[in-house]
Amino acid sequence: MSASLPYVLILYYSRSGATRAMAERLAAGVESRPGIEARLRTVPPVSPTCEAVDPEIPEQGAIYADLDDLRHCAGLALGSPTRFGNMAAPLKHYLDTTSELWLGGALVDKPATAFTSTSSLHGGQETTLISMLLPLLHHGMVYAGLPYSETALMETQGGGTPYGASHLAGKRSDRPLDDAERRLAHAQGRRLAHLALTLARPQGDAR
Ligand SMILES: Cc1cc2nc3c(=O)[nH]c(=O)nc-3n(C[C@H](O)[C@H](O)[C@H](O)COP(=O)(O)O)c2cc1C
């Protein structure tokens, strides 16, 4: 990875791998645009047992995000499994540590999007995407979903919404991304990369 290129942060939580597969597809979409990179990061699980401590490096998937990953991104894609129609607690927990960035306006005017995975088709994909939109708006980010010019939105028999990409992972969380879901996740990453380059702040504009 080059230090000089801007990057889109793809920040996700995934317990059984479905949201991670989506994140990787968005990353491919981001990197299909020249001049920008994808940075994949995850967050640790949380536990009601306060003494629980996680290893500093996850056993699989992306490494954990720190605040600087978020501070310096040119765009942000947030991914979470649906949990009771809402984003998963580990992602919310991470977002609740970002008030320093909110106070400094670090994310103002940067583009953002969201993606999710569910076990059931009508199990709350849209509500989860909207639950992720709320903190992004508080940070002053510019939310971009998926336009219907992406024809897979009309054709999909699984996931895919105008609020963002989604995936029907099935009861055992083992249904792979189907063709429409793959196309939409890729298009979402590509669009976010395009917007990040378009909205990029000039050098020295700390805002
Ligand atoms: C606590 C909990 C709540 C869940 N709530 C929902 C839900 O509201 N709707 C749904 O369709 N699936 C729900 N699921 C299933 C997950 O959203 C689904 O398995 C998802 O694909 C997992 O993503 P992952 O493989 O990235 O962890 C829930 C799972 C857990 C553990």
TrEMBL record:
Names of required cofactors: FMN
Domain of life according to the entry: Bacteria
Region of interest (Disordered), residue spans: 157-176
EC class (word): oxidoreductase
Domain named Flavodoxin-like: residues: 8-192
MF-aspect GO terms: NAD(P)H dehydrogenase (quinone) activity
Keyword list, A-Z: Flavoprotein, FMN, Oxidoreductase
UniProt keyword NAD, yes or no: no
Cross-referenced NCBIfam families: flav_wrbA (TIGR01755), PRK03767.1 (NF002999)
UniProt name for this protein: NAD(P)H:quinone oxidoreductase
Originating organism: Halomonas koreensis
Higher taxonomy: Bacteria, Pseudomonadati, Pseudomonadota, Gammaproteobacteria, Oceanospirillales
Designated gene of the protein: wrbA
